[in-house]
Amino acid sequence: MDQDATTNIRLVNTEVFVLGVGLEGNTSALDRSVFKVNCEPSTNLQYHYETEGWLNQTLAKEYGPSDPCITQVVDISIDEATERGISLGKAVLLGAGTGRGAFELAKHFEEVVGIDFCARFIDAAMKIQKKIPVPFLTENDGKRSKHEARVDEGIQADRVVFKQLTWIPVEIGLFDFVLFDFIDRVMNPKAWLVRLWEMVTQTGLIVVASSDGWDQEKLAPIIGKKLDYVGTQSLKYSDNDEDQVAVITMWQRK
User: Fold this and answer.
1) DSSP secondary-structure letter at 204?
2) Tens of pLDDT, residues 94-147
3) How far apart are CA 98 and CA 147, in angstroms?
4) Which runs of consecutive H residues, i.e. helices, occur in the chain?
5) Distance between CA 59 and CA 80 in Å, rounded?
6) Residue 19: which pLDDT band, with cuts at 50, 70 and 90?
């Protein structure tokens, strides 16, 4: 081979965190004298959440000193479920993050499944569930403070099962309550939305929470054939000292 000739190779250099293993090495054994290697981040944006920065940010949102958005979403959902006489048997949280929402649901439901595609988030949630403190930092007026994420006393954390899933498997089962909370994070929201009706019992309740424009008008063309719209609530909250509004829509099977 000509000494000056090289073959262009594109390699993904995004870190991969494997649940139960940790951060896997992503080194290349290619001969750089033969191959011209161009490293690029993965086009799968879901992998971009597998960083310590995103983990810290999510822990701070869920367990930090301010009132977390997810706890308020759960409170609104429980009020709606109670008013409609929904059974408080089984619940599933799609977008469990680092676990706070699932633990809040465990205050009311006998069984809770917390699902997220992010291995780092699920790893942290499982540690918190086992009462292993998970550290994180918050910043206020340029000053950093150290915290530890813990399960509140009185919460029956053993009611929760956490799973890392990037899709909804057929064998997921039926739930009395479905909270879809990471529609703003997944790459293909429609792929998740069209499966929601399969997860809920005939008399159950589905709640979709979004801060990125997924309101009743946008959702209805996708899920309206299988689900009836039953109401909307708006929730004002603070995220990194910025005012945000989450739209919470409720749905039931036809």
Assistant:
1) E
2) 999 999 999 999 999 999 999 999 999 999 999 999 999 899 999 887 889 999
3) 14
4) 52-63, 69-83, 100-105, 119-129, 189-193, 196-199, 216-223
5) 27
6) confident
Within 13 Å and on the Cβ side, how many CA atoms surround 202?
A: 0
Q: Are 249 and 229 in contact (CB under 8 A)?
A: yes
Question: How far apart are the C-alpha atoms of 46 and 97, rounded to whole Å?
Answer: 13
pTM score: 0.88
Cβ(210)–Cβ(247) under 8 Å?
yes
CA pair distance 93, 149, nearest whole angstrom: 19
Residues 6+ apart with CB under 8 A from 53: none
Coil vs helix vs strand at 59: helix
**Contacting residues for 234 by C-beta, under 8 A, at least 6 apart:** 245, 246, 247, 248
Structural contact between residues 250 and 231, judged by C-beta atoms closer than 8 angstroms = yes
Concatenated DSSP letters for 218-235? HHHHHHTTTEEEEEEEEE
Phi/psi for 189 (5° steps) reads -55, -35
